[in-house]
Write a structure and sequence with these properties.
72% helix, 24 helices, mainly alpha, globular
Length: 445
């Protein structure tokens, strides 16, 4: 009996296997380069979709199989490998469609992968799939997902006390259906599903966007108002908390209700004064009135959280108000401002208001020292050096000496910090020490 002839491997299969580096563990640090090599091979496979789609389908399936086999040899903390696998699924869909494959079978294969997903590669796969499925593919996929949802809905009540699995499946397929209905802008189906499973603020936003795209701003606004009411009932807000007010303003403008739109963004700014709400306000008001609203906003921000107020003044480049705010704030309050905001503010204040800048650099250094993290002490030294320079520039040598005394008294036991601090006090700060590359060049020579 003759032996069955072995299939001749596709030349690209060798490239796939080589790029997957079998039996070699890929660390998190090496994952980006590893995925870049895989992406190059994927582009070669994608190039075949138009000219040899059947071959591309087989190669994509081989590629996916290889990725699943490789999964336990990759530290994918960055998510790069998972994103690459998502792209392979999308490429497989494109190739299947180009080859004229049965859309029902394509949908069934996708769902089978989603059911058997040990590494989470297919989590929310419908979000990527719906972007590449053609009309027939979306319809087939939607119908099969709907069948999964209905089956889970029937099983959930029948499961009695042990219904958690069925309830989770019902929620899973309901979310998938929401994604598919929204992508197809099927308002009626989306609304029926939302009413059946419980309308959320995110549902209201999705329906409003679909109605707005259909040029039905009044209906869209009604859904936004409903979403805002639901969002207000949630203690910490929802994922739609930021987008719903913006959508409301856009719809009010579409309906010619400019005054209401301005009042809405003004109310949002007064509730949460900050960079984002300031920008929203200035975009909403008529251009000739922007200087008036600018002043009104900065006056209203006086009662805001100190960090948000400082960030806003840095954003609008109002150095004089910023300096006054820092001068009027206590040391304890300044130590509560985030390091990023403080650094931005101090850098802006240094040229014209060095005394105020010095207080921010001082606060930054003390935050680090009080946190007792030795790895961060170099950052404290850099902040102290800049504080020293600002105090000297402002003619406040006495304030610098008070800070030196306070640091010595409170942190004298920090043996990994104090020697470098004393060097700074004697005139040798971090900026005067040779850089890493300077030291390297000196050693090399």
């Amino acid at each position: 009996m003759s032996r069955k002839a072995r299939r001749r491997p596709d030349p690209l299969e060798r490239e796939i296997e080589a790029a997957l580096a079998p039996d070699h563990f890929v660390s998190d640090r090496g994952c980006f380069d590893f995925c870049s090599d895989l992406a190059e091979v994927e582009r070669d496979v994608a190039a075949l979709v138009d000219t040899a789609p059947a071959r591309a389908v087989e190669l994509y399936e081989t590629f996916l199989a290889g990725c699943y086999e490789k999964a336990e040899e990759v530290d994918d903390s960055s998510g790069s490998f998972g994103m690459l696998v998502d792209e392979l699924f999308c490429g497989w869909i494109r190739a299947r469609q180009a080859a004229g494959a049965d859309p029902e079978e394509t949908a069934a294969r996708l769902l089978a992968w989603m059911d058997d997903d040990p590494y989470g590669f297919c989590y929310r796969l419908e979000q990527d799939a719906v972007a590449v499925l053609d009309k027939a593919g979306r319809a087939a996929f939607t119908e099969q997902v709907r069948a999964r949802f209905e089956q889970a809905s029937q099983e959930a009540p029948a499961s009695g006390a042990d219904s958690s699995h069925a309830q989770a499946a019902r929620r899973r397929w309901a979310e998938a259906l929401r994604t598919l209905y929204a992508a197809r802008r099927n308002v009626g189906a989306y609304v029926r599903l939302a009413e059946e499973t419980g309308v959320t603020a995110a549902d209201c936003l999705a329906v409003a966007k679909m109605l707005s795209a259909r040029r039905k701003p009044e209906e869209a606004l009604a859904w936004v108002e409903r979403g805002l009411a639901l969002d207000a009932e949630t203690r910490h807000g929802t994922a739609a908390s930021r987008d719903l007010p913006k959508q409301r303003v856009r719809l009010l403008k579409k309906l010619g209700r400019e005054d209401e739109a301005v009042e809405a963004v003004w109310a949002a700014f007064r509730e949460h004064p900050g960079r984002t709400t300031y920008d929203d306000l200035l975009k909403a008001v008529p251009e000739p009135e922007r200087p008036i609203w600018h002043e009104r906003a900065l006056d209203a921000a006086r009662g805001a959280d100190l960090g948000a107020h400082i960030a806003l003044l840095v954003h609008v480049k109002d150095t004089e108000r910023l300096a006054g705010l820092v001068r009027d704030s206590s040391d304890a309050a300044l130590e509560g401002v985030s390091s990023h905001t403080s650094e931005q503010a101090a850098t802006r204040l240094e040229p014209r208001h060095p005394e105020a800048a010095a207080r921010l650099w001082r606060a930054q250094a003390l935050i680090i020292l009080n946190a007792k993290n030795p790895k961060a002490y170099p950052g404290a030294l850099r902040s102290l050096e800049r504080a020293q320079r600002c105090y000297e520039q402002a003619g406040r040598a006495g304030d610098w000496q008070q800070l030196v005394d306070a640091v010595r008294a409170a942190h004298h036991r920090k043996t990994s910090f104090m020697p470098s601090f004393e060097q700074l006090v004697s005139g040798v700060g971090p900026s005067e020490e040779p850089s890493f590359l300077d030291r390297a060049r000196a050693r090399w020579s």
